[in-house]
Design goal:
52% of the residues lie in helices and 14% in strands.
Length: 278
């Protein structure tokens, strides 16, 4: 997703974009498509930034890049970090307590996104972010390049907590959508007509609009993968447990996603849940 988000930023004349990817071939491909500068950790001492935007797979990748490899040392005083990854609350505390962050008054924003790869490609992501009130206008100007909805939820952590709510809702929706499709197919309904009949009523959702037909056709190559949802649900369910909540449907869906992953389908998109239920 970060590939496409950076592409939208590169089209704006307001920014000088330096890009980095842990996979060199991906970075070279991006530079062949968009206008920007290549950033290398080996000569990082020469460049200092007004802001840093990250979009990585998990806590470990972010901690390694920002803290272990000290990318935060390339930030100017009073700059910002805008993290679009989905992470744990523990990681936010780890970054916020780093002495470089504190000493240089660097504003950190946890800003996970929703909308999938298609949303990133089309520049219509939804961003939910937590962090201080200062620099909000600055980072909104940045995020406008690839987002259609940008909501400041509250202080640090509230962006990730909102993303947890988002993922729990999605998991339940895909479970219900899978079960509805399976019933319709089992009694030989015309599923195209079924979609037309119910998609403008109370059952309508983004998942239905974008995945109903592909789930019927066993097509599951649409970006956000099962293994990433497993990571996200684990984060959400830990937070729920810490708040004495037992979310039965989410726990059930997580178990089913783990079965999918264990059988080698971890790279399929999340709508492949129907394979396990079937």
């Amino acid at each position: 997703m970060g590939y496409h988000m950076a592409g939208h930023l590169a089209s704006k004349k307001d920014f000088d974009i330096y890009v980095y990817n842990r996979t060199e071939s991906v970075l070279d491909r991006w530079l062949s498509e968009y206008s920007g500068f290549k950033f290398s950790l080996t000569d990082s001492n020469d460049i200092h930034f007004n802001g840093l935007i990250t979009c990585l797979k998990n806590d470990e990748a972010i901690e390694d890049l920002l803290l272990n490899k000290r990318l935060i040392s390339n930030l100017k005083k009073n700059s910002f970090i805008l993290d679009h990854s989905t992470t744990s609350l523990k990681l936010i505390d780890l970054i916020a307590s780093d002495q470089v962050i504190i000493k240089n008054n660097i504003s950190f924003f946890d800003a996970p996104v929703s909308g999938g790869e298609a949303g990133a490609i089309n520049g219509v992501l939804s961003v939910m972010f937590g962090g201080p009130k200062n620099k909000v206008s600055t980072i909104k100007k940045v995020m406008n390049a690839y987002s259609k909805s940008i909501i400041h939820i509250g202080p640090n952590g509230h962006g990730q907590l909102t993303k947890m709510v988002n993922q729990i809702c999605i998991a339940g929706l895909i479970q219900a959508l899978s079960e509805g499709i399976l019933l319709g197919k089992s009694v030989n309904l015309n599923m195209k007509k079924v979609f037309k009949a119910i998609s403008n009523g109370a059952a309508q959702s983004w998942q239905m609009d974008n995945r109903f037909e592909t789930m019927i056709n066993d097509q599951f190559d649409f970006g956000f993968a099962v293994d990433l949802m497993i990571k996200d649900l684990n984060i959400a369910l830990k937070a729920s447990k810490d708040n004495n909540l037992n979310l039965k449907i989410s726990n059930q869906v997580l178990k089913q996603y783990k079965k999918l992953s264990n059988q080698g389908d971890g790279d399929l998109d999340t709508s492949s849940l129907i394979k396990i239920i079937r």
